C-alpha cells in the first residue's frame, strides 16, 4: 500500500498479487454524505453511459455497499470508498504536445456528453472555485501585495459582473469543473488521457466552463502558452459543438479562473499557510498569465477562439438608434444635446477607452471627468466599499471627509486651508460668488470673454459662454491671444473695471478658468497672470481660480492651473475630475473667510462631501500619486504637443496649437470655401465615425479642435489621434 497525493481526501494505492490496482479513498470529513453520494453516483453513471471513458470504477464493499467506514486514530469515523487505480503520468508533469492537448479537449467533450443526463442535488454546492462566485472572493484582493495584480483582478471582477447575466442563459449541465494538470493522467505512449480524477468539485454550470477551466489551468500551471490552449477548445468543439454565445464569455471565464486562483491563494496565505505552499507556484504563474491574457485582449482572443470552435459572434446590429432618439426627445426634450452627427451609444468605459454595444472601442480624447481613466478599479472599489457601509452627510463626524480634505489641502498653498463641499463645478462657483460678495461687499464681477463657469442662476450670469449680452454687473476681459501685449492686457482689465464703476458696481470677484478652455484654450505666461491679478486686486476684488478644467495635474508642469498662470487665488473651485465621475465639487479658501461665511449664512449641502464622495475623491488623489499621472501629463503632453505641431505644419487646414499638458486646442482654418467651423465639425465627425477617436470642438467660433483625454493617456494613444486627425484633414481637403 502506498499513499497518493490529494488536496483533501487521503488516498492509498493498493495492489493485489495478481497485478490489479485499487485506490482506497478516505474521504475528507468536510465532504458531507450528499457530496460523497454524488461522487460515487457520477462514477456509476459514467461507467454506464460511456464505459470507454478513463474514469475510475467503483468497487462495492463486502456488504455490497459503495462506501464503508473506518475509525481514525483521532477516534473519528471516516467514510471510505474503493475505486479502480488508473495508470499514467500526471498531465502536470511537463508541457504536453499539441496532440495531447487535443486529446484532452476531446476527452472533456466525451465526459461532458456522458454527464448530460446526470443530476444530483450536491451539484449546487457552494465552491470558492466556481468562477460565478468570483465577486464574493474579490474582497481577498486586499491580501495581494502587488498593486498591478490587484488592479488586474479588479478589472476581471468588474468585467465578469457585466457577463454574469449572460452566463445564466447558457446551456448548463453537470460538469467535472476541475480538470487541471493534477487531475488528469496521460499515457505517454498513447499521447492520450488515461485518467480523469477527483470528482469532488462537480457543479451544475454552463457547459463552456469545463473547457474554460482546463484552458485557464494549463495557462496558470505554465503547461501551455496562450497560443496553444485553443487546441483544447478546437478538439472539444469537434466532438461537442459549441455555440457563439458560449465563446463570447470564454475570455471572462478563463480570466475569472485566473483571478480565483490568485484570490484563493492570497486567502490561504493568510489563513492556511500549508495549503498556500501547494498553490505558491501557481500564484506566480497565474499573475503573469493573467497579465498576458489582459494584454492580448478580449477582442482578439475571442476572434481566435471563434475560429477554433467554428462559431461566429452573434450578429447584432446594436440597439435601434432611431427608436432611442425618439424616446430621448420625448423624455429629455429635443434640446438635450448630443455629440456627433451620428450620436454614439456607449455602454462601458475602461482607461482611455469607451465601448459601444457591439464592443467597438473608441479612444477617448475628450473626457476629463474620468480623470484617472474610465472605471478605474481603485476608484470603483472605493465607491463600492463606502456605499456598502455608510453614505451620510457632513452633519455627523466621519473621518473620510477629513482624510480627503487633509490630502487635498496638502496640494494647495498654505493660505488655502479649509474646504466647503458641494456637488458640481457650478455649485462650487455659485458658493464662491456668494463668498466673494460677502467678503468684499461688492456686487460686480470680471470674467474672461466666452468663459464658462456653470448653470446656476448666479453663475450663468458669470458665463458669457452661454450667451451675451451680459448683465450689467458683469464685464468680460479679452482672452490672452498670442499677440496680446501685457500692457494692453492691463489696460483691458482697467477698462473693464471702469465700465463696472460707470454702471455703479465694484468688482467682488475675478473668475478665471485657468485653462481658458471655452475662451479658446489659451496658455498665457505668468506675466499675464501677474498683470491681471495686480489690477483686479487693486480694485478690491477676490480672485477665483476655477480649476474645474485644468486642476489635478492636467497642466503637467504644475498640479494646478493657477500655479501655471502665476496666480495666488483667494478661492479655488473644483469639480469634474475630483472624483472621477462621482458628483463632487469643492470650494477651497482661507479658513477665516469660510468661518465668517458659515457664521453669517450657515452652510450645508446634503450630498456635498458625503462619505462616498470623500472615498471617491481620496481614491483619485491616491491613484494620481501612485501612477504618477501629473508626470505622465507632462511627458505624454510634450509628445502630444510636438506631434500636433508637426501635423499642423503639414496642413493648411490646421493653424495655431495652444495649451499644455493634457489639454490642447488646435485651430482649424477654412478650406476651399468651407468655413473653419464647418471644417472642424467635419473633422470631429470623421474622427468618431471612421477612426473611432473622440474629440470635441471649442472656442467662441467653435473652430478649435479640443483634445482633453483622461490622464492615463500614453504615447501610443497620441500616435493614434494624430494619425486619425491627419487622415480626416486629408479627407476634407480631397
Ligand atoms: N467651470 C468650468 C471651467 C467648466 O468647464 C464647467 C463645466 N464645463 C463648470 C465650471 C461647471 O461644472 P458642472 O458642469 O459640474 O456644474
CATH classification, class level of the largest domain: Alpha Beta
CATH architecture of the largest domain: 3-Layer(aba) Sandwich
The hetero molecules present are:
4'-deoxy-4'-aminopyridoxal-5'-phosphate
Classify the fold: give the CATH topology of the largest domain.
Answer: Aspartate Aminotransferase, domain 2
**DSSP summary: helix tally:** 23
**What is the tally of beta strands?**
26
| Beta-strand content | 15-25%
Spatial separation of the terminal alpha carbons: 84 Å
Any overview of this molecule?
- The chain is α+β, with helices and mostly antiparallel strands and 734 residues long.
- It folds into 4 domains: 2-84, Phosphorylase Kinase, domain 1 (2-Layer Sandwich); 89-309, Aminoglycoside 3'-phosphotransferase, Chain: A, domain 2 (Alpha-Beta Complex), CATH 3.90.1200.10; 322-372 and 629-733, Aspartate Aminotransferase, domain 1 (Alpha-Beta Complex); 377-626, Aspartate Aminotransferase, domain 2 (3-Layer(aba) Sandwich).
- Helices cover 44% and strands 16% of the residues.
- It has a 7-stranded mixed sheet with strand order 15-21-20-19-18-16-17, with helices on both faces.
- Strand 2 (10-15) and strand 3 (21-26) form a beta hairpin.
- Helix 5 (209-220) crosses helix 7 (244-271) and helix 12 (399-409) packs parallel to helix 20.
- 4'-deoxy-4'-aminopyridoxal-5'-phosphate is lined by residues 424-426, 429, 452-455, 513, 517, 546, 548-549, 575-576.
Amino acid at each position: 500500500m502506498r499513499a497518493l497525493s490529494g488536496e483533501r481526501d487521503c488516498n492509498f494505492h493498493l495492489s493485489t498479487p495478481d497485478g490489479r490496482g485499487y485506490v482506497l479513498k478516505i474521504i475528507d470529513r468536510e465532504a458531507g454524505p450528499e457530496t460523497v453520494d454524488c461522487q460515487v453516483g457520477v462514477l456509476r453513471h459514467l461507467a454506464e453511459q460511456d464505459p470507454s471513458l478513463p474514469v475510475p470504477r467503483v468497487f462495492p464493499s463486502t456488504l455490497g455497499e459503495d462506501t464503508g467506514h473506518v475509525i481514525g486514530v483521532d477516534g473519528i469515523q471516516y467514510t471510505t470508498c474503493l475505486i479502480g487505480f488508473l495508470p499514467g503520468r500526471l498531465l502536470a508533469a511537463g508541457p504536453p504536445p499539441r496532440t495531447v492537448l487535443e486529446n484532452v479537449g476531446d476527452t472533456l467533450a466525451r465526459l461532458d456528453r456522458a454527464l448530460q443526463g446526470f443530476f444530483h442535488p450536491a451539484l449546487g454546492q457552494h465552491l470558492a472555485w466556481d468562477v460565478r462566485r468570483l465577486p464574493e472572493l474579490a474582497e481577498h484582493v486586499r491580501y495581494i501585495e502587488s498593486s498591478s495584480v490587484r488592479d488586474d483582478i479588479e478589472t476581471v471582477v468588474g468585467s465578469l459582473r457585466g457577463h454574469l447575466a449572460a452566463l445564466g442563459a447558457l446551456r448548463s449541465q453537470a460538469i467535472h469543473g476541475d480538470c487541471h494538470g493534477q487531475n488528469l493522467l496521460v499515457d505517454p505512449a498513447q499521447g492520450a488521457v488515461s485518467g480523469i480524477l477527483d470528482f469532488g468539485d462537480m457543479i451544475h454550470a454552463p457547459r463552456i466552463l469545463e473547457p474554460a477551466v482546463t484552458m485557464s489551468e494549463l495557462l496558470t500551471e505554465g503547461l501551455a502558452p496562450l497560443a496553444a490552449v485553443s487546441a483544447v477548445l478546437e478538439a472539444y468543439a469537434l466532438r461537442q459543438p459549441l455555440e457563439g454565445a458560449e465563446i463570447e464569455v470564454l475570455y471572462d471565464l478563463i480570466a475569472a479562473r485566473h483571478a480565483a486562483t490568485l484570490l484563493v491563494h492570497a486567502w490561504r496565505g493568510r489563513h492556511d499557510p500549508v495549503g498556500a505552499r501547494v498553490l505558491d507556484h501557481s500564484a506566480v504563474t497565474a499573475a503573469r498569465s493573467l497579465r498576458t491574457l489582459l494584454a492580448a485582449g478580449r477582442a482578439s482572443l475571442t476572434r481566435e477562439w471563434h475560429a477554433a470552435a467554428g462559431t461566429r459572434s452573434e450578429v447584432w446590429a446594436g440597439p435601434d438608434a432611431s427608436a432611442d432618439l425618439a424616446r430621448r426627445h420625448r423624455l429629455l426634450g429635443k434640446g438635450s444635446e448630443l455629440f456627433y452627427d451620428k450620436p454614439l451609444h456607449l455602454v462601458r468605459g475602461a482607461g482611455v477607452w469607451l465601448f459601444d454595444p457591439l464592443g467597438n472601442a473608441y479612444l477617448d480624447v475628450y473626457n476629463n471627468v474620468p480623470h484617472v481613466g474610465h472605471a478605474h478599479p481603485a476608484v470603483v472599489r472605493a465607491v463600492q466599499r463606502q456605499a456598502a457601509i455608510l453614505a451620510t452627510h457632513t452633519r455627523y463626524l466621519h473621518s473620510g471627509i477629513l482624510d480627503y480634505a487633509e490630502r487635498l489641502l496638502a496640494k494647495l498653498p498654505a493660505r488655502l486651508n479649509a474646504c466647503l463641499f458641494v456637488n458640481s463645478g457650478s455649485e462650487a462657483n455659485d458658493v464662491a460668488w456668494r463668498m466673494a460678495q460677502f467678503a468684499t461687499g461688492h456686487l460686480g464681477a470680471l470674467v474672461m470673454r466666452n468663459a464658462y463657469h456653470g448653470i446656476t442662476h448666479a453663475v450663468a450670469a458669470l458665463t458669457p459662454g452661454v450667451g451675451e449680452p451680459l448683465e450689467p454687473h458683469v464685464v468680460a476681459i479679452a482672452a490672452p491671444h498670442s499677440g496680446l501685449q501685457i500692457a494692453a492686457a492691463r489696460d483691458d482689465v482697467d477698462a473693464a473695471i471702469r465700465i463696472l464703476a460707470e454702471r455703479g458696481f465694484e468688482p467682488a470677484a475675478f473668475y478665471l478658468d485657468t485653462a481658458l478652455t471655452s475662451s479658446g484654450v489659451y496658455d498665457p505666461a505668468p506675466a499675464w497672470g501677474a498683470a491681471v491679478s495686480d489690477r483686479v486686486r487693486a480694485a478690491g476684488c477676490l480672485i477665483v481660480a476655477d480649476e474645474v478644467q485644468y486642476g489635478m495635474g492636467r497642466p503637467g508642469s504644475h498640479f494646478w492651473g493657477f500655479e501655471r498662470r502665476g496666480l495666488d487665488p483667494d478661492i479655488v473651485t473644483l469639480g469634474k475630475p475630483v472624483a472621477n465621475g462621482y458628483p463632487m465639487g469643492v470650494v477651497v479658501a482661507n479658513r477665516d473667510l469660510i468661518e465668517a461665511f458659515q457664521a453669517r449664512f450657515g452652510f450645508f449641502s446634503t450630498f456635498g462631501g458625503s462619505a462616498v464622495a470623500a472615498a471617491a475623491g481620496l481614491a483619485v488623489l491616491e491613484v494620481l500619486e501612485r501612477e504618477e499621472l501629473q508626470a505622465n501629463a507632462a511627458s505624454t503632453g510634450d509628445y502630444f504637443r510636438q506631434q500636433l505641431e508637426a501635423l499642423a505644419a503639414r496642413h493648411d487646414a490646421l493653424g495655431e496649437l495652444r495649451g499644455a499638458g493634457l489639454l490642447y486646442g488646435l485651430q482649424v482654418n477654412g478650406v476651399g470655401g468651407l468655413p473653419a467651423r464647418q471644417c472642424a465639425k467635419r473633422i470631429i465627425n470623421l474622427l468618431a465615425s471612421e477612426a473611432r477617436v473622440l474629440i470635441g470642438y471649442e472656442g467662441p467660433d467653435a473652430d478649435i479642435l479640443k483634445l482633453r483625454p483622461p490622464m492615463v493617456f500614453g504615447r501610443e494613444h497620441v500616435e493614434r489621434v494624430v494619425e486619425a486627425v491627419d487622415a480626416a484633414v486629408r479627407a476634407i481637403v480631397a
